[in-house]
From TrEMBL:
SUPFAM superfamilies: alpha-helical ferredoxin, Respiratory nitrate reductase 1 gamma chain. It comes from the Bacteria. The keyword Transmembrane helix applies. This is Tricarballylate utilization 4Fe-4S protein TcuB. InterPro entries: Citrate_utilization_prot_B, NarG-like_sf. The chain crosses the membrane at residues 134-155, 175-199, 256-275, 287-308, 328-346, 352-372. Keywords: Membrane, Transmembrane, Transmembrane helix.
Length: 403
């Protein structure tokens, strides 16, 4: 028997000996059956729990040490808490080709990918997107754009005299609100149902209100700065090899804040329209256009950087089966920003209607697929970071089984 196995057996024996006399140890309850991927996570993390060489790395390892066994909800929580920086793979003495074959990033990535489908609503959409993410995303964007282009062609408005950037002369304002309100509303409902189911499964005691508030603020800060994309030690993630780099974090931040600037642009334009009575079009120097332009540039630069890093990355650091789904979201972000910037540049020409139809088709496809890919991953990871912040403030205890 290996010395590491002896350590694991001893740890279990110690907990069994403590029994109910220690209020920090909770009774074992029946656990739900694990999938093969979840079982692999449980196996690997039991080895990691005995070794603990990576205890000072990202949030996964402190959270792991609070558990001796790993139920389904635990694997889902830890998988979404992992930022896939790759540092633990290169630091691990039991990584392949060692017979223990410990590969934490890949094992957690496989479970993390399954959570997108497990918690998706409707479930069939999640399964379809997981299997054919890039094809579905591009086909949906192309189909919607083609539908709008054909509608304009039939109406005789596809090519026109310059309209001074007046989008509503092509598509009436109320029609756009109805179309995008329905698609965006569906995305919000689907994401909400998935996030609620995920939180219900992983949630434990929340503690006093003051601690919950502090945990919430800490989680928000960790999300906004992408804390654990620094490898947990400030030097960055591993990419093609064991050298550290902060570029993965920078590309993620560029993409995230580009998206948020575009969202802010839409919110400001809505405020202008409904509160100030100032409908579009807006001047290039206006706040909605400036925010949208900066956001669009971020959503070009960031996704290109992420695609570049994805091509260089060591395949052992993730789940290769998820590449089409991952790249589908990046591709839609890139297409959304590129078509939006093109529309802004040529909005005062006769090409505006064609560019507008293409841009709106891509945006609708992006909204429709938000609940089923990498955007859903952002929601679940935020929930996992909140749980981690809450858990740190709870009394320390060892967690067994599905308690």
């Amino acid at each position: 028997m290996h010395p590491l196995s002896d350590l694991i057996d001893q740890a279990r024996a110690d907990v069994d000996g403590i029994g109910s006399a220690n209020p920090r140890v909770v009774p074992i309850r029946p656990v739900l059956p694990l999938t093969a991927a979840e079982g692999e996570v449980a196996r690997i993390l039991q080895i990691c729990n005995a070794c603990r060489y990576c205890e000072g790395f990202c949030a996964v390892f402190p959270a792991m040490t609070r558990r001796l066994e790993f139920a389904k909800a635990d694997t889902h929580y830890l998988a979404n808490l992992c930022h896939n920086c790759g540092a633990c793979l290169h630091a691990c003495q039991y990584a392949p080709p060692h017979e223990f074959a410990v590969n934490v990033p890949r094992a957690l990535a496989e479970v993390r990918g399954s959570t997108y489908a497990d918690y998706a609503w409707p479930a069939a959409f999640g399964a379809l997107y997981r299997q054919n993410g890039l094809t579905v995303a591009l086909a949906l964007a192309g189909g919607l754009a083609l539908f709008l282009v054909l509608a304009l062609a039939l109406a005789g408005t596809l090519f026109h005299q310059p309209l001074a950037g007046d989008f509503y002369a092509i598509f009436p304002h109320n029609l756009l609100v109805a179309l995008f309100g329905a698609v965006f509303g569906f995305a919000i409902v689907a994401l909400g149902i998935g996030a609620r189911a995920f939180w219900r499964d992983v949630r434990e005691g929340d503690g006093p209100y003051r601690e919950r508030a502090a945990a919430g603020l800490e989680a928000i800060r960790n999300v906004l700065v992408m804390k654990y994309l620094d490898g947990g030690h400030g030097e960055g993630c591993n990419d093609a090899d064991d050298r550290f780099t902060l570029w993965r974090r920078r590309w993620h931040q560029t993409t995230f804040y580009g998206f948020m600037l575009c969202f802010a642009s839409t919110c400001v334009a809505t405020l202008y329209h409904y509160v100030l009575g100032r409908p579009a079009p807006y001047a290039p120097t206006s706040l909605p256009v400036l925010l949208g332009t900066l956001g669009g540039i971020g959503l070009v630069v960031g996704p290109i950087g992420l695609l570049w890093m994805a091509r260089r990355r060591d395949p052992a650091q993730g789940d290769p089966a998820q590449r089409p789904m991952d790249r589908a979201f990046i591709a839609l972000l890139l297409l959304t920003s590129a078509t939006g910037l093109a529309l802004l540049a040529w909005r005062d020409t006769g090409w505006m209607a064609l560019l507008l139809a293409v841009h709106l088709g891509v945006v609708m496809a992006l909204f429709a697929t938000l609940p089923y890919g990498k955007f859903a991953h952002a929601v679940y990871r935020s929930a996992a970071l909140l749980k981690f912040s809450l858990e740190r403030r709870l009394p320390s205890r060892l967690k067994l089984g599905d308690d």
